[in-house]
Each structure stands twice: as C-alpha cells, then as structure tokens.
Design goal:
267 residues, alpha/beta, Rossmann fold, 7-stranded mixed beta sheet, 9 helices, 40% helix, binds S-adenosylmethionine, Methyltransf_12, SAM-dependent_MTases_sf
Length: 267
C-alpha cells in the first residue's frame, strides 16, 4: 500500500495508487449527473472551448468533448493524467495547475471538480483559472464541504460513534495534507472576490444508504487512505467495521454537501 499523504503533499490521494481507478469510477457514478446537469444549464454546446482541470478519470472531459462538437475543443489537465482515455476533440495535458502556465483569456468554460479543495494554493489557482477564461466565459467549481454529514439511522450507538470517528478522522487526514475540508462553502465568496459576476452557488445533499454511489466512494476511502487513517489513530479492524456499516441495509446518513458554483468573467 502506498503511503499517499507523504508521497504527494497537497493532494491526499495518489492518482498512481492501485486504488485510483476505483476512486474515479465511484466519483463519476456519484457526481457526474450533478456536474453535467449544471454544465448543461450553463449552455455548453457546439464550438465551445473548454478546460477541465484535474480531470481524474476523464468522464466529464469526455462528456464535454461530445457536447462541444462540432467545432469546439476540450483540454483536460491532470498532474497524473494516465486515466484519461483519448477522445476526438480532447487534448490531454500533464499539467500542475499550481505552477504550470495556462493560456490567458482562452476558454469559454473552465470546470474543476474536487481539486481546489485539496490544494493549499487554491486562491492563487482560482485567480489563474479566472484569467484563463475569455471575457464572458464561465467557471464552474464543484467542491465538497465534508464537515457536514450527520448520521441519521445506525444499527446501534457504537456504530454511530464509529461512523462519526471515521468522518472526523477523514477531516483530519485532509487538513493535515493542506486541504480545506469545508472549501465548498467558501468557494462562492472566493469566486466573487476573484472578480467573477453572476456567482451562483448550488448546494446539493442527498440521503445516503448502502446502495448510494457516494457511500461506495467513502467506503473506498477506507482502502485508498488506509495508511493516513491509521496515522490518525484508526485501526484496520475499525476500518473493516466502517465498511461493514456502510454495507448494512439499515444505514442512513445525510451526505456531505457538494457545492456546484458557477460564475462568469465580466465582458
Ligand atoms: C479527487 S480527484 C477528482 C478527479 C475529477 N475531477 C473528478 O471529480 O472525478 C482530484 C484530481 O486532481 C488531480 N490533481 C491533484 N493535484 C493537482 C494539481 N496540482 N494540478 C492538476 N491536477 C491535480 C489528481 O491527480 C486527481 O486526478
């Protein structure tokens, strides 16, 4: 098992870890419907030039490439872009958004999901994304606030305490790596301060049960972030019990909040 938090400071998961493919699959199942509904609402269509930052498994980049045809183009970036399959109209860049150059005033749409929250330099990155937009272009950030997510129905009190310790440990894991676990709630204000107008934050929560894609994602975290959880004091036995709890048909919790925030660069 790779020790992810020390391998890649500023990003707690490792896109080269053997768990990364599953992570991208679960992220896509849980959040692509929300992301693409919002992008659809922004009017993304033929001819648009789009930038997808930290594209992960590439599902959103592929959706965009289909949407902007004919005549449009999509650039998908990632520090570790190995999971992004080639597609017509899609260029893939190995690119660190904290330090590598971005074109100025180039894109009709810049989208990034669950990337800035991990990066200590998120405000500088946000400013760079704004400058990459054409005047009138749209930035969409889809970001978590994982500090919210109450348990609702648990098999017993011990299970509730275990779930709450798991959520707290994940907040500590992410904070230690430089993430802001509540970034989703701050993104809209930061986008307005970065000069965007018509800023539109849409919070999304849902009921989680054992069949929810979001629950499959957090169950996956017990494996992908295993070493980091152990450093935060959780044992392998507790992590196995968390997986059992998340698979229990009686488990009910409110999801964390994902904020889908759009803003426009002034003309
Ligand atoms: C939590 S994953 C989200 C992936 C995808 N956006 C999604 O929501 O399905 C974060 C992604 O950001 C990438 N990443 C991390 N740091 C980055 C950086 N400095 N520049 C560009 N990409 C980065 C990771 O490799 C990973 O693919």
């Amino acid at each position: 098992m790779t020790d992810t938090a020390t391998a890649d400071p500023g990003y707690v998961f490792d896109n080269h870890n053997e768990n990364a493919r599953d992570q991208h699959r679960f992220l896509a199942a849980a959040y692509d419907p929300l992301t693409t509904r919002r992008l659809d609402g922004a009017g993304v269509g033929p001819g648009w030039r789009c930038l997808e930052v930290g594209a992960g498994g590439g599902g959103v980049a592929h959706w965009l490439a289909r949407r902007v045809a004919p005549g449009g183009s999509v650039v998908a970036t990632d520090v570790k872009p190995d999971h992004i399959a080639p597609a017509e109209g899609l260029r893939v860049w190995r690119h660190d958004v904290t330090s590598d150059p971005l074109p100025e005033a180039e894109f009709d749409l810049v989208h990034s999901r669950l990337v800035l929250l991990h990066l200590p330099e998120r405000i500088e990155v946000l400013n760079r994304l704004v400058h990459a937009l054409k005047p009138g272009g749209v930035l969409q950030l889809d970001e978590f606030d994982i500090t919210y997510g109450p348990s609702l129905l648990m098999p017993d009190t011990g299970a509730r305490e275990l779930y709450e310790e798991f959520l707290s440990a994940k907040i500590r894991v992410m904070s230690r790596a430089g993430a802001d676990p509540a970034w989703g709630r701050h993104a809209a204000g930061a986008m307005r301060r970065a000069g965007l107008v018509d800023v539109d934050p849409q919070p999304h929560v849902e009921l989680w049960d054992s069949g929810s894609p979001g629950v499959h994602l957090i169950a996956h975290h017990t494996r992908h972030l295993r070493d980091a959880f152990v450093r935060e004091g959780m044992t392998d036995g507790q992590l196995a019990r968390v997986r059992g709890l998340l698979a229990d048909p009686s488990f009910r919790a409110c999801s964390c909040v994902v904020y889908s925030v759009q803003g426009r660069r002034p003309e």
